[in-house]
Amino acid sequence: MAAGSRTSQILAFALLCRPWLQEAGAVQSVPLSRFFDNAMLHAHRLHQLAFDTYQKFEEAYIPKENKYSFLQNPQTSLCFSESIPTPSNMEERQQKSNLELLRISLLLIQSWLEPVQFLRSVFANRLVCGTSDSDVYALLKSLEEGIQTLMGNYRLLHCFRRNMDKVETFLRMAQCRSVEGSCGF
């Protein structure tokens, strides 16, 4: 398990279990705001990374005239994380408790642990072969697979960007409610 995912799980555990652990005297008093500040920093970094990666991929591989038609294709429009019920608008988010927002955020983060590993392996340079005649077919097959994979991963990158935006929004709302009272959401 990567250090970042371990940190995220520990942070989520600490945020979810903190009230019970404090009652039992198992945790020294650490300001809740510090937990949320760290969570927000990580969520913002993930969202920015997802946004930047998606934008660079889109600029490099998706012609502007095909940008939206590609996502409207039924085969490329659904995110695998659509099965995780998330509030879709401000009113629905406001109706969720902090615990529910944190649980949804954790589910979204956990749902991306494996796909992010997959994306990392896909975008690693795998064409480190010689160019002898015997390698031509293998290189062509590898290139074919690479292009198919790149086009297939546009949807995955789009979903990653959307979900990290949701995580950042949910954590910001929970932070405002828990630490700052009401933030006008």
From TrEMBL:
Binding-site residues, Zn(2+): 44, 168
Signal peptide: 1-26
GO MF assignments: hormone activity; metal ion binding
Gene Ontology annotations for the cellular component aspect, listed alphabetically: extracellular region
Predominant cellular place of this UniProt entry's protein: secreted
Taxonomy, superkingdom: Eukaryota
Subcellular location per the Swiss-Prot or TrEMBL entry: Secreted
Keywords noted in UniProt: Hormone, Metal-binding, Secreted, Signal, Zinc
Pfam families for the chain: Hormone_1
tRNA-binding as UniProt keyword: no
Family that this chain belongs to: Belongs to the somatotropin/prolactin family.
Protein name: Somatotropin
The species this protein was found in: Macaca mulatta
Taxonomic classification: Eukaryota, Metazoa, Chordata, Craniata, Vertebrata
